[in-house]
Design brief:
alpha/beta; ABC transporter transmembrane region fold; Rossmann fold; 6-stranded mixed sheet; 3-stranded antiparallel sheet; 17 helices; 9% strand; binds adenosine-5'-triphosphate; AAA+_ATPase; ABC transporter ATP-binding protein; ABC_transporter-like_CS; ATPase-coupled lipid transmembrane transporter activity; nucleotide-binding
Length: 611
């Protein structure tokens, strides 16, 4: 997957040697400091200030040499770290490209993962610096002690070694805890996102308490993990105290014993310098660096490994696109109906429509958003013959969009059966659903329009553009190849793009769920007429009553009952339809006139008169 340090040592021994060499030069001051301090102290005490100052000069020179060694040291480090980074980047890009061939391109992957690669690179470089710094500084200090006063090692080595052993044991615990913390964070994020998305359903089912308890449990687990991580952090401080201050206290306590055995004050001062300026900072950096950056590196590498190329190469999907459980630019996210049995289908059927069967058949369909929620649709029967143009009207909240979702297969009935062209709904080759919220993506207008009809030629696109009235936007963008910024489009323009896309799609059934709500009445009329003239079946969840007037048939949803028929028929037979139309008739006319005296711009979903 990527080069380990051992691989690099084999492949680039020169770089590793250079790193070791310059690390040795960088650590030279650690070796020289103790001796220079010892000699300088002894020199001053013996009344030889010139010699003492000379040793102080040596100390200064060693410091300068150590500082100068850092420049080539970093160059040697880069020669080791950059190939490691290249390996990671290559893996990430290969993974993203391979996934894009599966038909589910993860466009955020490269940006996201290269960020993780940078974290891994920095952590790896930091870890190498820490490890080599510890090794060379400790070696320099111990060598200095050995040459200055070997007996001192008796007091320095035992606490240092004990601290290192304890730290190694703690590191394993820290890594396990850090991983658990990270996974817990992910669990918590997933849980809260799921709760936020489904809060409407949860409230509808009276499930707030249960949700609160479930989320609370994950939060408590996470808090317990964070507390235990903090306790391990305190243990780390104890280990540092043992390995850093232990040798210092022991050397101080042993000083009289050493002096009795002939060690001068300079030797004691030199030994203390080794402990204070060599061993203690080295241990400190090791514990902090490995405990922080090392764990981060391990986690980042794990995430990158997970994002690697999929096991087997996959081919692009056949066109038209196979159904995907993720929302497409014409398919709104699936509704979240009752947990069971009303789950959205994860793999819609791909069989061809059955010739001669109606475009839509609903048989005894009941749907509710939760097991204890009131049914939105109850025992609904409906047949929409092939080639029909049906408008669905009814008061706000009566279930018009729910019906559209059931027909499109993004919601599944709690009881009853829905068929589209004789097949279970949900196959994007059989139907296209345009919701109120238009899904338009950043890219060229051509790509947006061709999303559901990849083979569409420019003549077909021009026809769709003309049919829905998109020419002004095409002109503004400089042609079909013009790039679109979805954020810069007006809501009406975005709807027109989504509508033109649906117009181009080969799907024989089009469901418009208030898909023209941001258009003015004239533009809406043009769109509906265009779709009505398009071969296939049209179902319009009406936003204005004029949609009902244009349709061949109207379905009036009325909670417990639903009636359908022509406009005149319904005026005569449906009190609710009469109420709806009467309501708008009495509204001040706001747009085009109509032969029936109905204001065609009036909304169809105003609340029913509560009489
Ligand atoms: N995801 C959901 N979770 C829970 N309840 C929902 C959900 N979606 C809709 N409802 C409820 O179901 C009922 C029917 O909603 P629907 O959107 O189908 O009605 P509508 O007739 O299309 O309304 P409008 O014309 O206002 O869009 C409403 O009471 C609504 O609050």
């Amino acid at each position: 997957m990527y080069r380990t340090f051992a691989d690099t040592a084999r492949q680039r021994p020169g770089a590793v040697l250079r790193l070791a060499l310059w690390s040795a030069v960088g650590a030279a001051p650690t070796f020289v400091f103790g001796h220079a301090v010892a000699r300088a102290v002894d020199g001053f005490l013996a009344g030889r200030p010139a010699a003492a100052c000379g040793w102080l000069g040596v100390l200064l020179l060693a410091g300068v040499a150590g500082a100068l060694a850092f420049r080539p040291l970093y160059a040697a480090l880069a020669a080791i770290v950059e190939p490691f980074r290249d390996d990671l980047v290559e893996r990430v890009v290969r993974g993203a490209l391979a996934r894009s061939l599966t038909g589910r391109p993860d466009t955020g992957a490269v940006a996201r993962l290269t960020h993780q690669v940078e974290i891994a690179r920095d952590s790896y470089a930091g870890l190498l610096m820490v490890a080599r710094g510890f090794l060379f500084s400790t070696a320099g200090a111990l060598l200095g002690l050995l040459t200055l006063a070997p007996a001192m090692l008796l007091f320095v080595l035992p606490p240092l070694l004990l601290a290192l052993v304890l730290f190694a044991a703690l590191l394993a615990l820290l890594a396990a805890r850090q991983r658990a913390l990270l996974l817990g964070e992910e669990r918590l994020a997933e849980r809260t996102a799921a709760v936020a998305e489904g809060v409407r359903d949860a409230v509808a089912c009276g499930g707030e308490e249960r949700l609160r308890a479930e989320v609370g449990e994950v939060v408590d687990e996470q808090a317990a993990l964070a507390r235990s991580m903090a306790r391990l952090g305190a243990l780390r401080a104890l280990i540092l105290a043992l390995g850093g201050w232990g040798p210092l206290l022991l050397v101080l306590a042993a000083a009289p014993w050493l002096v009795e055995r002939g060690a001068g004050p300079g030797t004691v001062a030199g030994a203390l310098t080794y402990v204070m300026h060599g061993l203690r900072p080295a241990l400190n950096t090791l514990v902090q660096g490995v405990g922080g950056g090392g764990l981060r590196l391990a986690v980042a590498l794990e995430r990158i490994a997970e994002s690697g190329p999929p096991p087997a190469p996959a081919l692009p999907p056949a066109l038209p696109p196979t159904p995907s459980p993720t929302p497409s630019p014409t398919q709104p996210p699936a509704l979240s109906p009752a947990p069971s049995p009303a789950l959205p289908p994860t793999r819609p059927p791909t069989a061809d429509p059955i010739p001669g069967r109606p475009a839509v058949e609903l048989c005894g369909v009941t749907f509710s958003y939760g097991p204890r929620a009131r049914a939105v649709l109850k025992d609904l029967d409906l047949v929409v013959p092939e080639g029909d143009h049906l408008a669905v009207v009814g008061p706000s909240g009566i279930g018009k969009s729910t019906l559209a979702a059931l027909v499109a297969g993004t919601a599944v009935p709690s009881a009853g059966r829905v068929l589209v062209h004789g097949r279970p709904p949900g196959d994007p080759r059989h139907r296209v659903l345009i919701p109120q919220q238009a899904y338009v993506f950043g890219g060229s207008l051509h790509d947006n329009l061709g999303y559901l009809a990849p083979g569409a030629d420019s003549a077909a696109m021009a026809r769709a553009v003309d049919a829905v009235g998109l020419a002004a936007l095409v002109k503004r963008l400089g042609g079909l190849g013009g790039m679109m910024d979805p954020g810069a489009l007006s809501a009406g323009e975005a709807q027109l793009v989504a509508l033109a896309r649906a117009f181009l799609s080969p799907a024989p059934l089009v469901v418009l769920d208030e898909a023209t709500c941001h258009l003015d009445p004239a533009a809406e009329a043009r769109v509906e007429r265009a779709f009505a003239a398009r071969p296939g079946t049209l179902v319009v969840i009406a936003h204005r009553i004029s949609s009902a007037l244009r349709a061949r048939r109207v379905l009036v949803l009325d909670g417990s009952a639903a009636v359908s028929g022509g406009h005149e028929e319904l005026l005569a037979g449906s009190p609710l339809y009469r109420d709806l139309v009467g309501h708008w008739r009495s509204e001040p006319a706001g747009g085009l006139g109509d032969p029936d005296g109905v204001d065609p711009v009036a909304r169809t979903d105003l609340p029913v008169d509560p009489r």
